[in-house]
Amino acid sequence: MIRSLYTAASGMKAQQLQVDTIANNIANGNTAGFKKSQLSFRSLLYQTYREPGLQTGANQTDVTGLQVGSGTEVSGSRKLMTQGLLELTGNSLDLAIQGPGFFEVQLPSGETRFTRNGSFRQDAEGRLVTAEGYRMSDGVAIPADSLGIQISAQGEVFSLGPDNVLAPAGSIRVHTFPNPSGLKAMGGNYFSLTAASGQNEAKLAASLGAGEVKQSYLERSNVETVDELVGLIVAQRSYEVNSRAIRVSDEMLSQVTQLVR
Amino acid sequence: MDVGLYRTVEAMRSNQQRVEIITSNIANADTFGFKRMLHVAHGVQNPAHVQGHSQLVTGTKLDLQQGILIYTGQSLDLALDGDGFFVVDTADGEAMTRAGMFQVSADGVLTGIDGNPVAWDGTRGRIDPNAGDVKVAGNGVVSQNGQSIGRLRLVGIESTNDIEVDSGGHYKLREGKKYTSAEATVNQGFLERANVQTVDELVEMIAAQRSFEMASQTFRMISESYQRLNR
Q: Which helix (H) or strand (E) holds B171?
């Protein structure tokens, strides 16, 4: 009987984490480039009380065994790297990636991070930086006298000079991963690579396996609020049912204590 | 005379196990690929017992009924529709699973979410993790950019009694049992939900609780009648 108390508790803990995850997804419903998380669960150890084949008579055996599970646990969370909606912003330094891949930025410490939030701006030296001021690793620099910027689907950056001629100003690479779901979210919409994600590969945008760069667009988060709300309700009800199982086990235990008066 | 007392204890124990089984089902209602356990209790005639008194034996039976497929859009989420299993190579041998939340490791091996490699028919296919676009056909044939890589191994079983449940959604063949051919289609971009119906489990749980109550009441009645006898 004690077992089912713990079993139900494992279910409640799992649902609690589920609600935490969903709440974070909902909170980031309006964060550009945000990718929602999804938890996955797996069943815990099964205890085998009895193997099938119990001798129940002279020439009679029981075909069923007795195996009881001990609950559930979170096996991991993954980032769902599905495409978010592209929204036209009209800002020439807003970039979105349609298809797989990430922009690479450099932290002041020299570490690299990856993001799909392409809301870039220029720093004093004309380099493309994120809202936090992290430089893009590609080292694209826009001349000070530039009149306009054009970025092709392949990620090539052109600057419109004072002489009305487009001059190349570098190119933006798209970084892909063997297993992008294995990236570690570092907050601020940045990801860092892990053993699970594998090494990044810098690719020409719009080449095989890499998405294309869309200028003047931002990628909205891939969170569907309706789906998340449904998930929230399901998690809450599951939580309730699990707590109900605890109550039933408790009531049964109290009956045992009243067996002998 | 004391046979009745032992019978009520048996009934209580059986219903307690019933609640444990149901609770495990409920706890895993959100586990992809999970299959619920059924509680089966039946009386068996035991020659060692007095004629007319049967012994209550509690067992479990895996309910392999199809779970609902939900769309995730992830190219390596695979759900089986029909009878059959994927096979994964775990640290302690081959195991079957219905949880098709797969991923590709950096060196191109298709693995389960716990990192166990998925078994293929014949040689293990290598998925180029950087080449994109993996397609999995209904029969389990995997292709990348139009090129066939190989076929995932799918197996079937003769009876649910042939397998035992391991942790992590894995199933193992019992000794001396053999695989049969799978009769399932692979659905790419879908995951199979647990086949647990919370309503059914709740009803079962209440029924188990009441059966337990009745058994414990009966136990008290019998034991009180002993007390009167002893007076």
A: strand B170-173
Q: How far is CA B41 from CA A46, B12, B60, B172, in A?
A: 19, 12, 8, 24
Cross-chain CB nearest to A245 (options B130, B168, B205): B205
pLDDT in tens, A47-56: 888 887 777 6
Q: What six digits make up the tokens of A108?
A: 């002041």
Separation between Cα atoms, residue A214 and residue A155, nearest integer Å: 8
Contacts of A49 in chain B (CB under 8 A): 17
Can you name the residues that pair with A42 across neighbouring β-strands? A73
Q: Which pLDDT score, from 0 to 100, does residue A57 have?
A: 66
Is residue B169 less than 8 Å (CB to CB) from chain A? yes
Write out pLDDT tens, residues B69-119: 999 888 899 999 999 999 999 988 999 999 999 988 878 899 988 889 999
pLDDT at A238 over 90: yes
Which helix H or strand E contains A103, and what residues bound it? strand A103-106
- Which among A184, A194, A220, A178 is positioned nearest to A37, based on CA atoms? A184
Contact (Cβ atoms closer than 8 angstroms) between residue A259 and residue B219: yes
